[in-house]
Design brief:
Strand 2 and strand 3 form a beta hairpin. It is globular, with a radius of gyration of 17 Å. It has a 5-stranded mixed beta sheet with strand order 3-2-1-4-5, sandwiched between helices. It is an alpha/beta fold. The protein has 8 helices and 5 strands; from the N terminus they run αβαββαβαβαααα. The chain has a single domain, classed as Ribonuclease H-like superfamily/Ribonuclease H (Nucleotidyltransferase, domain 5). It is about 45% helix and about 15% strand.
Length: about 230
């Protein structure tokens, strides 16, 4: 088991920054410490998460619905952000489970807009893990555990606006200041091994509520859906 973990670490170290992203959704309505504020302030129910396997860099947004539309909006906003800083995603891998927010049902030949965006907009590959193989998503699952302990269960939120502000502060701290002992540095410094002199802002991705972006990105979604 120790040898297997060592081999996996070496595989991850050979990757470039943002060459492989694990994407997943976290439920927020099952966190006891958050539930009362979630209910009172009508906070979003879902956290959409992307985490870089090589660097541990974390990017999050929120949704009121766990839908393929919100998953697609998450990809569009991420792509727009990375493009702004010259980060190219062609040839990278976006890994997800088989949830219907990412993939079509097993008995369907349809391709979701999420997959189309990964392949056509990002120029990347959409890799689906085997059903039930949760350990394949260990990097993003670890981030879900940490954000629950360090943000949702530790902070109080007086409004939706404060919730988003504190989430933005957490995301910036996680990527720019939080030292990862397993990876040996902060996510920002590890990203800079691939992109030297990259500004800090490139890994600062203030969370938004994706449902609110539908009108803004409606035409672009339609373009990639065809």
């Amino acid at each position: 088991m120790v040898e297997k973990k060592r081999d996996l670490r070496l595989v991850k170290q050979r990757l470039k920054a943002l060459e492989k992203l694990q994407v997943d959704v976290k439920y927020l309505d099952d966190i006891p410490e958050l539930y009362e504020e979630y209910r009172r302030h009508k906070l979003p129910k879902y956290q959409f998460t992307a985490r870089c396997v090589r660097t541990g860099a974390l990017f999050i947004a929120y949704g009121r619905e766990k839908s393929v539309t919100n998953a697609a909006l998450f990809l569009l906003t991420l792509h727009e952000h990375f493009k702004r800083y010259g980060i190219r995603l062609e040839g990278s891998v976006v890994q997800t489970d088989n949830g219907t927010e990412f993939t079509a049902p097993w008995n369907s030949n349809k391709v979701t807009i999420f997959t189309k965006l990964v392949e056509r907009c990002w120029g990347a590959h959409h890799h689906r893990i085997p059903p039930g193989a949760k350990t394949y998503q260990s990097d993003v699952e670890s981030s879900h555990r940490w954000i629950e302990e360090e943000l949702y269960a530790a902070e109080t939120f007086a409004s939706e606006q404060e919730f988003l502000q504190k989430a933005a502060q957490y995301q910036k701290w996680f990527n720019c200041s939080r030292y990862n002992r397993y990876k040996g540095n902060t996510p920002l410094n590890l990203v800079r091994e691939t992109y030297p002199a990259l500004p800090e802002e490139a890994v600062v991705f203030p969370p938004v509520i994706l449902d609110n972006l539908l009108v803004q990105y409606k035409a672009e979604l339609a373009q990639w859906a065809t």
